[in-house]
Design goal:
It is found in: Cell membrane; Membrane. It comes from Carlito syrichta (Philippine tarsier). It is a multi-pass membrane protein. Keywords: Cell membrane, G-protein coupled receptor, Membrane, Olfaction, Receptor, Sensory transduction, Transducer, Transmembrane, Transmembrane helix. There is one protein chain. The chain is an all-alpha fold. The chain has one domain: Rhodopsin 7-helix transmembrane proteins (Rhopdopsin 7-helix transmembrane proteins, Up-down Bundle), CATH 1.20.1070.10. Helices cover 77% and strands 2% of the residues. Strands 1-2 form a two-stranded antiparallel ribbon. Helix 3 runs antiparallel to helix 12 and helix 11 packs antiparallel against helix 12.
């Protein structure tokens, strides 16, 4: 029989968790606050600039840049999903998060992660159509088709992530309430449960295979077909020019999937590693793509780079 104190502890633990800043070095958290703030500022400025440039410049209002806009919005949304808990830990030294806030954050982090993967697949399809059938590119990827693709990507993410909060909410938590990261992830919260988590683990595995795994496979197949088309072009200069239009997207794919694979491998096989390694990889997975994607697209896309340069030159001339 559970006494009143144990019952109270079970109830309290169920309604709050403790997030982790720098494992074993809580006194170092304030030192991370300013670099973290700088990264979030870069994310907002970079992706906001991409969105503003595409909206203002009519020459950029074509399928490739519409998908880039969706990617920028997703990156901003993903960053904003982690921002509240990051700020509470590193800026205000308040690591506690309520259970409801935790599962809400979990839903948005995983949801926007699935959306980003879907957007990268859409961009691979965009590059495939542009290279395979350039004459009908604009007629195939119309505004209506792009809108339907966007709705499909968002709907898929909502459908596959929607059960996750309910699967977590049914679990009892009666032991540790200390999470491994500065934000809530399904696998991190799940491991604290004092009941069987087989259903959660199985569902999580199915979701990863049918979304991220399937998306990665589609992207690889798309580039195999793209490469086959490019190799059929007689001129070497034209081949290089055509492949160059895919470099930004390839970088975005690598920025998303390489950290994701790294985090997954560490969770599975790196239990002996320092907790700092786990925290570093988890933060890189969520913070690096939103910061670097706009930089990659600005550096590799001449139209965006030229437009940004024109804006800066006008401001310098006014001064």
């Amino acid at each position: 029989m559970i006494n009143s104190n144990a019952s109270h502890e079970l109830h309290a633990n169920y309604h709050s968790f403790i997030l982790t800043g720098i494992p074993g070095m809580p006194d170092k958290n304030p030192w991370v606050a300013f670099p973290l703030g700088f990264l979030y500022t870069l994310t907002l400025l970079g992706n906001g600039t991409i969105l503003a440039v595409i909206k203002v410049d009519h020459s950029l209002q074509e399928p490739m840049y519409y998908f880039l806009s969706i990617l920028a919005l997703t990156d901003i949304s993903l960053s904003m999903s982690t921002l509240p808990s990051m700020l509470s830990i590193f800026w205000f030294n308040a690591p506690e998060i309520t259970f409801d806030a935790c599962i809400t954050q979990m839903f948005f982090i995983h949801g926007f992660g699935v959306i980003e993967s879907g957007v990268l697949v859409s961009m691979a399809f965009d590059r495939f159509v542009a290279i395979r059938d350039p004459l009908h590119y604009a007629s195939i990827l119309t505004h209506g088709i792009i809108g339907k693709i966007g709705m499909t990507v968002v709907s898929r993410a909502v459908c596959v992530v929607f059960p996750v909060p309910f699967l977590i909410k049914r679990l009892p938590f009666c032991h540790s309430i200390i999470l491994s990261h500065s934000y809530c992830l399904h696998q991190d919260v799940m491991r604290l449960a004092c009941a069987s988590t087989k259903i959660n683990s199985l569902y999580g595995l199915i979701v990863v295979i049918l979304t991220l795994g399937l998306d990665a496979l589609i992207i690889i197949l798309s580039y195999i077909l793209i490469l086959k088309t490019v190799l059929g072009i007689a001129s070497k200069t034209e081949r290089l020019k055509t492949l160059n239009t895919c470099l930004s997207h390839i970088c975005a794919v690598l920025l998303f999937y390489v950290p994701l694979i790294g985090v997954t491998m560490i969770h599975r096989f790196g239990k002996h590693l320092s907790p700092i390694v786990h925290t570093l990889m988890a933060n890189i997975y969520l913070l690096l793509p939103p910061v670097l994607n706009p930089i990659v697209y600005t550096v590799k896309t001449k139209q965006i780079r030229r437009r940004i340069s024109q804006v800066f030159q006008r401001r310098v001339n006014r001064v």
